[in-house]
Design brief:
This protein has 12 helices and 8 strands. With 303 residues, the protein is α/β, with parallel strands linked by helices. The chain is globular, with a radius of gyration of 18 Å.
Length: 303
C-alpha cells in the first residue's frame, strides 16, 4: 500500500472507488489498522459511487511509530486522571486529526464525508469541529463525547482491553489474546463466526501489531479531554451510530454526542457491540451512504 509524508510522519493509506466519486474518509479506532474497515463494508460504499479512503493512524499499522516517545505508564495516567491532574502525552487527538486533514491535502481532496469509529469517531468529531470547511458530513460510530460522568466500560471489557498476551513473542499467543478481546467486546446479536474472527485477527497481527503504539494512542485520548463545547459548534450534517450492547463505549456515549451536535440523527443498533461484524457490514454501509447522499458536493460548495 502507498505511503505519504504528513506532519513529519508517514501515513499508509488505501483508496478505492471512482476517483470522481465523493470522498469518504474512514478513521479507525484505538490500535486498529485500516483493514479494520471490512472489505464488504468498503465495497458497499464504493458501489454507491463513493471514493473510499482508509489509512493507518500514527502508531498503528504501517504508518509511523512514535517509538521515541517510549511506552507510557498507563497505571500512573489512570491515577492522575482520577484526581483530574494534567496528563502529559507525546501527542493529542488534535494531532491525529491534523494527520487526517494532511492526508486529504496530499490527495487533493477539498472536502470529504468523515466517518470514524470509536477513537476514530473522536478524531472525526475534531475534524468536523475544527475543520468545518473540509467536512461534508460527519458520521460518529460507537464513539463518545468523553464527557466526565458518562458510563465507562464493563469490567469484562476493561479487563480484556488492558490484558496482555501470555507470550508477546509468540504469534499464536498474540492472536489468542486479540480473539478473546474482540469476542468480549463484540456484538452479542451478530457474533462473528470463530473462523472468520481468527482470520481477521491473524491478518492484522501479521500486518502489524504495536502494543506500545496502542498505549500511546490511549494516552492521547486521556490527555485530550472532552469535546462537549466543540460538538455544540458542529454544523455538518451528523449521523451517530451506536450499538445498544456496546460493553466498551456504552450507548450513553453515542447518545451524548447526538444530544450535543445540533440536528444530529441517532441510530441505535439493537444487539450491536463494539465492532463491525459480518452481519452488520452492509447495513451500516447503507446507513452511512444514505446519510452522505443527503448532502451533495455541489450543495456543500454553495453553502
Amino acid at each position: 500500500m502507498p505511503t505519504i509524508d504528513v506532519n513529519g510522519i508517514r501515513l499508509c493509506y488505501d483508496v478505492q472507488g471512482d476517483p470522481r466519486g465523493e470522498p469518504i474518509l474512514l478513521i479507525a479506532g484505538l490500535g486498529l489498522q485500516l483493514i479494520s474497515w471490512p472489505e464488504t463494508f468498503c465495497r458497499t460504499l464504493v458501489e454507491h459511487g463513493f471514493r473510499v479512503i482508509r489509512f493507518d493512524n500514527r502508531d498503528s499499522g504501517l504508518s509511523s511509530k512514535m517509538s521515541h516517545l517510549g511506552r507510557p505508564n498507563l497505571g500512573m495516567a489512570f491515577f492522575r486522571s482520577m484526581f483530574h491532574f494534567p496528563l502529559h502525552a507525546g501527542y493529542a487527538l488534535d494531532d491525529m486529526a491534523a494527520d487526517a486533514v494532511g492526508l486529504l491535502d496530499v490527495l487533493g481532496v477539498e472536502r470529504a464525508h468523515v466517518v470514524g469509529a470509536s477513537m476514530g469517531g473522536m478524531i472525526a468529531q475534531l475534524i468536523a469541529g475544527k475543520y468545518p470547511e473540509r467536512t461534508l458530513t460527519l458520521t460518529s460510530v460507537m464513539s463518545t463525547s468523553s464527557r466526565v460522568g458518562l458510563p465507562g466500560p464493563t469490567l469484562a471489557a476493561s479487563s480484556a482491553l488492558f490484558a496482555s498476551p501470555r507470550n508477546p513473542r509468540d504469534f499464536d499467543s498474540v492472536v489468542d489474546h486479540f480473539v478473546h478481546l474482540f469476542r468480549v467486546i463484540g456484538s452479542p446479536k451478530y457474533p462473528t463466526p470463530a473462523a472468520e474472527l481468527r482470520r481477521r485477527v491473524m491478518e492484522s497481527v501479521r500486518r502489524n501489531a504495536t502494543v506500545n503504539g496502542t498505549a500511546r494512542q490511549l494516552m492521547a485520548i486521556a490527555a485530550s479531554g472532552d469535546r462537549v463545547m466543540l460538538l455544540r459548534t458542529i454544523k455538518a450534517p451528523t449521523l451517530v451510530i451506536h450499538g445498544t450492547a456496546d460493553p466498551l463505549v456504552p450507548v450513553a456515549g453515542g447518545r451524548d454526542v447526538a444530544y450535543l451536535v445540533p440536528g444530529a440523527e441517532l441510530r441505535e443498533i439493537e444487539g450491536m457491540g463494539h465492532d463491525i461484524p459480518p452481519g452488520l457490514e452492509v447495513m451500516l454501509a447503507e446507513l452511512i451512504a444514505a446519510h452522505c447522499k443527503g448532502v451533495t458536493m455541489t450543495e456543500a460548495r454553495q453553502a
